Amino acid sequence: MVYAVTGRYLVRMNPGTMQFERLCEASPGRMAFVGNDLYLTGHVELRRLPDAVRVQE
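The structure assignment produced for this chain is given below.
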């Protein structure tokens, strides 16, 4: 999976199918993965997206 901020949204793209999924509104910042969770830095706060990482079967 590829994660990126496009416009006002954090999106996840599956490079095999080219399918995009909008996860949440987000401003550009740094991303860190801890286990299956994704942490985003922004202008003021630190955000956590639990279970953002999906395991491919």
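Interim note for the steering committee: The chain has a mean pLDDT of 84. The first strand starts at residue 2 and ends at 6.
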